[in-house]
Design a protein that fits this description.
single chain; alpha/beta; Rossmann fold; Arc Repressor Mutant, subunit A; five-stranded parallel β-sheet; 5 strands; Response regulator; transcription; transcription regulation
Length: 219
């Protein structure tokens, strides 16, 4: 199946560059472009793309506001945040707003294609070390959230362990290997964690783990 992508960036050269790179992939098609958050919201509603590549810093409506509105309108929407900054507080806020992942604009064509596929498949893009560093850094700057800490008590010891490994960027296969269990068992644990904590995906689970201090910078 072809993955349909909407590119959102206020710079024409960036949009055209990403379009060329993605359209060169056999399983990916760029179905539209938007120059700011407001146009992105309208394009998502009209085109129903599988993945939205979203720049953060744009005039009018920025990527953070657009991400929040897009996810609020459709909980299954998949937004992949693009930025030139590897430590950008707006990116952290976008992850909390419901973005499924984060990628630097200087990523290679292969990294870009892989990122789109990962997000389209319903997985959060947490593997790059820069993402973990970003989440860890901005969680460290804040204070533990009591509601988050209280909700940890709803999890079993095994579910808490799985949550910590998710926050560290491990895939289901890697978690299964680490815990010496079947990958299907890990998927069940992850699903239960998301339901119990009222989270939409692995990205929000990772942010929750940092905010609840289950994982600390460098931990």
């Amino acid at each position: 199946m072809t993955i349909r992508v909407l590119i959102v960036d206020d710079q024409m050269m960036v949009r055209e560059g990403f379009s060329v790179l993605l359209n060169a992939q056999q399983d990916i098609e760029v179905v539209g472009e938007a120059v700011d958050g407001r146009e992105a919201i309208a394009q998502v509603a009209a085109l129903r793309p599988d993945v939205v590549l979203m720049d953060i810093r744009m005039p009018e409506v920025n990527g953070l506001e657009a991400t929040r509105e897009i996810v609020a309108a459709d909980a299954d929407a998949k937004v992949l945040v693009l930025t030139t900054f590897d430590l950008d507080e707006y990116v952290y806020q976008a992850l909390r707003a419901g973005a499924s992942g984060f990628l630097l604009k200087d990523a290679s064509a292969r990294q870009l294609g892989d990122a789109v596929r990962i997000v389209a498949a319903g997985e959060a893009l947490l593997a790059p070390a820069v993402t973990k560093r970003l989440i860890a850094e901005f969680s460290r700057l804040g204070t533990p959230r009591p509601p988050a800490q209280d909700r940890v008590g709803d999890l079993t010891d095994r579910e808490t362990e799985v949550l910590v490994l998710v926050a560290q960027g491990l895939s289901n296969a890697e978690i299964a290997s680490h815990l010496v269990v079947a990958e299907s068992t890990v998927k069940t644990h992850v699903s239960r964690v998301l339901v119990k904590l009222g989270l939409r995906d692995r990205t929000q689970a990772a942010v929750f783990a940092y905010e609840a201090r289950l994982v600390t910078p460098g931990g």
